[in-house]
Amino acid sequence: MDGRSYLREQGRWHWAEAVFWLAVAGAWLAFPDHLVLGTQILIAALFALSLDLVMGYAGIVTLGHAAFFGIGAYAAGKLGQQGWTEPISGLALASLAAGAVAAATARLVCRGNDLSRLMVTLGLGMLFFEVANKASGFTGGLDGMLDIVIAPLFGVFEFDMWGRTSYIYAGVCLFGAFLLARHLVRQPFGLALHAVRLNPMRADAIGIDNTRVLARIYVLSGAMAGMAGALLAQTNQYVAIDVLSFQRSADVATMLIIGGLGQLYGGLVGAGGFLVAQDTLASVNPVYWQFWLGLALILVVLFVRGGLIALLRRLGRRLARRPKGAA
Hints:
With 327 residues, the chain is mainly α. Helices cover 74% and strands 0% of the residues. The protein is globular and about 55 Å long.
């Protein structure tokens, strides 16, 4: 199979993908009392998808991805405070702001090796957190950004406290970002990313500009993370300083590992599993829920190789090989 045939084959939609997105849409009707949680899952899924592009496909290990999430959140929040209340244009501007910061730092991150990238991204995350804390006149500091006003979507659909508009808004944004990511990783650009991740020296030898390829996906990932942060600010109409915290970066990395690196759907499934487990365990035991969540994460890493998506694929192949009529 040549390269073009391989890409065409990879670009075809599988019936399981249609089922997944129909389930996302159907949840709006099936769980009307849990749409606020559903909106948080969709936002986290978009954030995890952005991290998957740099960590799963480009191989850039980062512990500071929350920097772009927080920049998007603060940009959208400040626009809402200053009278720019239209949500879609505010979302676009916030994404551009995060993408611009990613572009300014891309060369710094993408030139190094794994360890230096890890330390640089961690340092950037800490730097932006402290800047936000000190610039309390702009960000609200530890008290957070209040008085954010977001107009109804298209002038009609208000962002109510039940999450009915927010869920659809976040779902459409997630699906659009997913389509873009899916298209890119199944193009020659995606193959170049794969080559750089597996063997940077060989990729450079065959003419791939490693730094340029990594910088491009890093900027796109930063813009997507900023979009996720902006969605959080617009749907909550409040921005807390923890949008820039190390814990936020660690949580999204955990979601991605649970779902599976380098599989697009891994971040989406991992975000859902992580937040549903967190919500369920916290309601069962508000004091010690982190113990059970930690135990569950250890079990997933030890016994579910490649994440939940890889597990589902193995089960699907096993069922497909099962003889017809077998009990």
